[in-house]
Design a protein that fits this description.
Elements (H helix, E strand, L loop, with lengths): L16 E5 L4 H12 L3 E6 L2 H15 L3 E5 L5 H15 L4 E4 L14 H28 L4 E6 L3 H4 L5 H20 L5 E8 L5 H7 L2 H4 L16 H12 L10 E4 L3 H6 L12 H13 L1
Parallel strand pairs: 1-2, 1-4, 2-3, 4-5, 5-6, 6-7
Helix pairs in contact: 1-2, 1-9, 3-4, 4-6
Bound molecules: hexanoyl-coenzyme A and NADP nicotinamide-adenine-dinucleotide phosphate.
Amino acid sequence: MQYQQPMLRDNALQGKTYIVTGGGTGLGKSMSKYLLELGANVVICSRKLPILEATAAELSQATGGQILPLACDVREYEQIEAVIEQSVARFGRIDGLINNAAGNFISPTERLSHRAFSSVLDIVLKGSTFFTLAMGKHWIANQQAGTILSIVTTYAWTGSAYVVPSACAKAGVLAMTRSLAVEWAKYKIRLNAVAPGPFPTENAWDNLLPPPIREEFDPAKKIPVGRTGEHQELANLVAYLMSDFSAYINGDCITIDGGEWLKGAGEFSNLDMVPKEMWDMLEAFTKGNKK
Ligand code: HXC
Ligand code: NAP
C-alpha cells in the first residue's frame, strides 16, 4: 500500500450525502471525487456554475456517482439556504458539510485596501460560519446528526506575514470549529478541521506562488519529508473524518503538511544546511567549549 492510493474500504460512504463548498476545482474537486468513489452523493457549490457543471460531468463519468452542481456565493446566506433546500430535495438528507471555499492572495498588508481585506475575510470566515450556521440550524430543527469539516491552514495558529487576511480568517474558522464542537455535540453534530501544508493546485499556486517567485520559494524545499502533498492523501484523511469511523474525533484540527510548520517553528531546524563533514569540527568545538 502506498500513500497515493485510496484508503477506505469500498462503499464506506454508501448512502451518505455531503456538500463540498468550492468543490469545482483544486482540493475540493479531489475530495469530492473520492467521496463519490466511496459511494456518497456529493453536492458541489461555488460562484462559477459552468466550472461546477464541467466538474460534475467529469466526476460522474469517472466514478458513476451522483453529483449535483449548484451556484452559490458563500457570502450570501440566502444562497446557502437554497443549496441546503435543493440538496435535500434531490438526495433526501445531508450528512456532512466541507467548508473548503476560499480566497487568498499574497501582499504586504499596508498595500491592501480595506475592500481587499474584506474580500478574503468574507469568503473564508463569513462563508464558513454562515454555511455552518445554516447547516446546524437545519440539522437541529430536523433532529439529524451531521459532520462539519473545515479546511484551514497551519498558519491558522501561527499567523503568517503577507497573507494576513487569510490568516485572520482561518484562525476564526478554527475557533468556530473548536467552540461548536463542544456546544453542538449534544445535537450529534461533530466539527473538525484539517490544516494542509502545500498541495499543488492551479489557483492556489497562481495566487500564492506566481511564476516570478516560484523557483525561489519552492515549498518542497522547506518541507521535512521533501515533497508537497498528493491530493489523494488529503482525500483519504477527509473521507475518514467525514465517515462514522471517526465518530470519537470532535473539535480537533489534523495537520497534514509533512512537518512543514514545525520545521519553521524549531529554533535549530536550519542546521539541516550544515554538511555532514562539518559536524566533526562542530562537535570538537562544542565539546572543547565545555572543558
Ligand atoms: C491585492 C487584491 C488582489 C491582490 C484582489 N484585490 N486581488 N489586492 N492583491 N492579488 C483587491 C481588489 O483590488 C479589490 O479591492 C478587492 O480585493 C476585491 O477584489 P475582487 O476581485 O472584487 O474580489 P473577489 O471577487 O471577492 O475575489 C476574491 C479573490 C480572488 C480572493 C480576490 O483571488 C479569488 O476568488 N480567489 C479564489 C482562489 C484562491 O485564492 N484560492 C487559493 C486558496 S489557497 P479594491 O480596493 O481595488 O476595490 C489558501 C491556502 C494557502 O487559501 C496555504 C498554502 C500553504
Ligand atoms: P481553489 O482551487 O482556488 O479553491 C477555492 C474554491 O473556492 C474555488 O473552487 C472557488 O470557486 C471557491 N470560492 C471562492 N470564493 C467563493 C465564494 N465567494 N463562494 C463560493 N465559493 C467560492 O484552491 P485550493 O488550493 O483547492 O484550496 C482549497 C482549500 O484548501 C481552501 O480552503 C484553501 O485555503 C485550503 N488550503 C489549500 C492549500 C494548498 O496548498 N492548495 C494549503 C492549505 C489550505 P468559484 O471561483 O467558482 O467561486
